């Protein structure tokens, strides 16, 4: 199971450490956040103790209004659970009684200057991204007319050269050679370059080039949803390639189905223009216009009309 080290949360959100405890290697395994108002009231059925616990003004006011004995018992019962941490929002004063109970059960306590709703929203977004299932695939990811096009194929087939021509034509590079893909929703994949090779591209015969330095900041983008996969392969005279586009192929990555186009490569074909056309055609299909089906409908209408004569 994926987990996010608690130190990463502290660093990303600039949390003030009130008490860290003796186990700094705690990992957070879910992006859901819990506000423990019901637990402070004594209701622990279905308590989501595996979540980050966020205490806002409402919960703190309620705690301060309890009599000391009841408050101590509720906090002891709360901290007995194996919670990853507790974060007090709004930069509020963290009472000694809360810190003492946390120390008794060795539970980390932090303070954030963010308001509660903003903190929860940002935490959820951060954890959803950090905990998303991910995989690294060989290929090139480019943004063509707003479409995330993932170029796949054997090494040396011309993926990087095609991407370079697309960049020259005004499109943007996301990643070359290695693409980190993460699943951020049931039907949504995001691709990005590993930090080490971000904005770099390898061109055989020239070597490594820096796309951002060479073409400007507008030629690169850090991440992009994957919309279309283009499988590049050497032209095979014995293979029948799709000439109409009526049959649609798909490829599955991390359980998400993506439309796939097989693009045969041979000298004389302008691959960059073909990729541009594929991206435009993909957008048209999403808007409800399918050129191959339109032609098929016209042919069927013509045949029907001839039959009726």
TrEMBL record:
Provide the residue positions that the database annotates as binding Mg(2+): 160, 202
Per the record, what are the reactions this protein catalyses? [HPr protein]-O-phospho-L-serine + phosphate + H(+) = [HPr protein]-L-serine + diphosphate; [HPr protein]-L-serine + ATP = [HPr protein]-O-phospho-L-serine + ADP + H(+)
- Region named Important for the catalytic mechanism of dephosphorylation: 264-269
In Pfam terms, one family for this protein is Hpr_kinase_N
Q: What class of enzyme is it?
A: transferase
Which GO molecular-function terms appear in the entry?
ATP binding; magnesium ion binding; phosphorelay sensor kinase activity; protein serine/threonine kinase activity; protein serine/threonine/tyrosine kinase activity
Q: Which Gene3D superfamilies match?
A: HprK N-terminal domain-like (3.40.1390.20), P-loop containing nucleotide triphosphate hydrolases (3.40.50.300)
Q: Give every HPr kinase/phosphorylase C-terminal domain span.
A: 130-298
Task: Tell me the active site.
Answer: 138, 159, 177, 243
Q: Which residue ranges does the record assign to the HPr(Ser) kinase/phosphorylase N-terminal domain? A: 4-127
Entry superkingdom: Bacteria
Q: Which co-factor is required?
A: Mg(2+)
List UniProt keywords, sorted A-Z: ATP-binding, Carbohydrate metabolism, Kinase, Magnesium, Metal-binding, Multifunctional enzyme, Nucleotide-binding, Serine/threonine-protein kinase, Transferase
User: For the region Important for the catalytic mechanism of both phosphorylation and dephosphorylation, what residue ranges are annotated?
Assistant: 201-210
EC id: 2.7.11.-, 2.7.4.-
List residues binding ATP: 153-160
Its domain comment says:
The Walker A ATP-binding motif also binds Pi and PPi.
Subunit field text: Homohexamer.
The record's similarity note reads:
Belongs to the HPrK/P family.
User: What NCBIfam families would the database entry show?
Assistant: hpr-ser (TIGR00679)
Described function = Catalyzes the ATP- as well as the pyrophosphate-dependent phosphorylation of a specific serine residue in HPr, a phosphocarrier protein of the phosphoenolpyruvate-dependent sugar phosphotransferase system (PTS). HprK/P also catalyzes the pyrophosphate-producing, inorganic phosphate-dependent dephosphorylation (phosphorolysis) of seryl-phosphorylated HPr (P-Ser-HPr).
Leftover remarks: Both phosphorylation and phosphorolysis are carried out by the same active site and suggest a common mechanism for both reactions.
Name used for this protein in its record: HPr kinase/phosphorylase
Could you tell me which species this protein originates from? Caldicoprobacter faecalis
């Amino acid at each position: 199971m994926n987990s996010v080290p608690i130190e990463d949360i502290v660093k990303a959100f600039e949390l003030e450490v009130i008490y860290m405890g003796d186990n700094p290697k705690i990992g957070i395994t879910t992006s859901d956040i819990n506000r423990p108002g019901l637990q402070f009231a004594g209701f622990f059925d279905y308590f989501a103790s595996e979540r980050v616990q966020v205490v806002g003004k409402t919960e703190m006011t309620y705690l301060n209004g309890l009599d000391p004995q009841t408050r101590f018992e509720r906090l002891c019962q709360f901290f007995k659970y194996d919670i990853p941490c507790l974060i007090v929002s709004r930069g509020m004063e963290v009472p000694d009684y809360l810190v003492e109970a946390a120390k008794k059960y060795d539970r980390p306590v932090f303070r954030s200057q963010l308001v509660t709703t903003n903190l929860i929203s940002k935490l959820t977004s951060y954890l959803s991204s950090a905990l998303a299932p991910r995989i690294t695939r060989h290929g090139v990811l480019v943004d063509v007319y707003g479409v995330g096009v993932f170029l796949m194929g054997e090494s040396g087939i011309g993926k990087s050269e095609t991407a370079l021509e697309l960049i020259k034509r005004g499109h943007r590079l996301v990643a070359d050679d290695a693409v980190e893909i993460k699943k951020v929703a049931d039907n949504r994949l995001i691709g990005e370059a590993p930090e080490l090779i971000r904005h770099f591209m390898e061109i055989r015969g020239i070597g490594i080039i820096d796309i951002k330095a060479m073409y400007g900041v507008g030629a690169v983008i850090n991440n992009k949803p994957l919309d279309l996969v283009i499988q590049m392969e050497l032209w095979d005279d014995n293979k029948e390639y799709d000439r109409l586009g009526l049959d649609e192929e798909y490829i599955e990555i991390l359980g998400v189905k993506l439309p796939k186009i097989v693009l045969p490569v041979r000298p004389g074909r302008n691959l960059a223009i073909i990729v541009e056309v594929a991206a435009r055609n993909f957008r048209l299909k999403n808007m409800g216009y399918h050129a191959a089906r339109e032609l098929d409908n016209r042919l069927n209408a013509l045949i029907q009309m001839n039959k009726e004569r």
